Amino acid sequence: MKDKIFWPSNSSEWTEVASSEEQGLDSDKITEMFEFIEKNSYNIHSVIIVRNGYLLTEEYLYNSQLLEAKAYSDLLPPKAYTGPIFHDQASATKSLTSILIGIALQEGFLDNLSQTLYEFFADIWDPSFDERKKNITIEQLLTMNSGLIGEWYPNYPRVDYPPADCIKLALDDVPLGYTPGEAGKWEYSNEGPNLLSGIIANVTGKSTEEFAREYLFTPLGILEEEYHWPHDDKGINYGAYAFHCSPKVQAKLGILCLNNGTWDGTQIVGKDYMKDATTVKTSLSKGEKSMEYGYLFFMMDSPLEGYYMAGSGGQCIYVMPEYNITVGFTAGGKIPKEGYEKLLLDYIVPFAKP
Question: Is 319 within a domain?
Fold first, then answer.
C-alpha cells in the first residue's frame, strides 16, 4: 500500500485510483456496501472515501441506487440539491465554522478563546439584551455551553428559517436556558455558530465566506463553483447550517483535519487548536446513551475511533486518524442512527490494511 500522503489540487484533476486495493481497502466490500444501501433503502445521495489523500470512491445515488454520472440527480428535493455537485451540509457547517475560528486564531485576528461577545458586538449592544450574554466566550459557543436554547424549546422565538438577521436573533431574541459556562451543561444551538460567523466577519472585515475563500478554500484548491454559502440580510454567512458543497470539498476538509490542520506542508489551522477541536471537551450520558463533543465536532462511538462533522438528514464527514481515512456522506434522511457506523464497521474499517 502507498503510505505517502497525496495532496489533491483542483478537484477536476483529483480522480479515483484504479482500485481501492492500492490503498489497502477491499473493492469487493465497497461494492457490497452499495448493495446493502440499496437493499435497505438508505436514502444516501453520495459517498466519498479517501485514504492518504487518494480518492478511492466517489459515487452518487438516487432512490438508494448508484448513478452512472458523477453528479447528483436533478430529481433531488431543492433543499438538498442546488446543482450537479452541490449538496446541503446542514449542521456539518458548524464544524467548518470551528475550523475558521482556528484559522482566525492562527492568523492573529483573534487573541484567544476567552474573548467575550461584548468585545465584538459592543456597537450594536442594547440595554434590553440579557446582561449575562455579554460574558459568553468564544469557547462556550464552540462547546455549546453558552446557555442559548435550541429551537425546539417552546419559548424559542418564532422566526422564519433561515433568519433575516441571525446576530440580532441570538443577542436579542433567543433566551438563555442556564447561566453561560455553567459546569456540566450542554445545549445544542444554532445561535452559537451563527454568532461565531459574525465574530469572524467583525474581526477580519470580510464576510465569513470571503475569509474562508482566502485562508482555507484557495489553499486547499477548492474553487468557487464547488460550494455555495448563503447569508442573512446583513451579509452574515450562516455559521450553523446551509453551507452547500461537493463531496470532494467534504473530503478535503476531512483531510485537513486528519493532518492536524496542515495542507501540503503549510499550517492552515493551528495544530493545537485542531487537536483541541477534535478531542473531548464535553461528555454526557443518559442511560446507555452517551455523547462526546469537541469544538463543534462530534466524537465517534466505540469501537470506532475518530470524530465527525454531522448535519441533519444524514450529512456527515468522518475522520479516522488510525486508518488515515476520510468518508463523506450526503443523504435525504431515512438513515438509521447506527446506519453509517454499520457501513464503516462492516465494509470499510475492517479491511483497511496498514
Answer: no
93 located within any domain: yes
DSSP code at position 238 = P
pTM above 0.85, yes or no: yes
- Domain interval for residue 288: 80-296
298: nearest Cα among 289, 285, 307: 307
Burial class of residue 338 in the structure, from the number of CB atoms within 10 Å of its CB (0-12 exposed, 13-18 middle, 19+ buried): exposed
CA angle 112, 320, 246 (to 5 degrees): 80
Give 172's DSSP letter.
I
User: What is the distance between the alpha carbons of residues 185 and 6, in angstroms, rounded to a whole number?
Assistant: 41
The region of weakest confidence among 78-82, 153-157, 163-167 is 78-82
Grid cell, residue 183, equals: 459546569
Quickly state the pLDDT bin for 79 (edges 50, 70, 90).
low
For residue 6, what are the CA distances in angstroms to 17, 131, 167, 263?
Answer: 11, 50, 40, 10
Residue 51 maps to a domain: no
C-alpha cell read off for 326:
476520510
129 pLDDT more than 60: yes
C-alpha cell at position 96: 467548518
CA pair distance 59, 329, nearest whole angstrom: 10
Query: What digits encode the pLDDT tens for the residues 248-264?
Result: 999 999 999 999 999 99
Q: Which three cell numbers mark 15?
A: 480522480
- CATH, residue 91: 3.40.710.10
What is the predicted pLDDT for the residue at 237?
A: 98
First to last CA, the chain: 8
| CA dist., res. 306 & res. 257, Å (int) | 11
In a domain, 344, yes or no: no
- 248 alpha-carbon distance from chain centroid: 13
Least confident stretch, 62-66, 84-88, 252-256, 308-312: 84-88
> b/e for 56-76, b at 16 or more Cβ within 10 A?
bbbbbbbebeeeeebebeeeb
Those residues with Cβ within 8 angstroms of residue 126's Cβ, 6 or more apart along the chain or in another chain: 171, 172
Tell me phi and psi for residue 291, to 5 degrees: -150, 135
Count: domains in the chain = 1
Q: Where are the beta strands (DSSP E) in 52-102?
A: 54-62, 65-66, 87-88
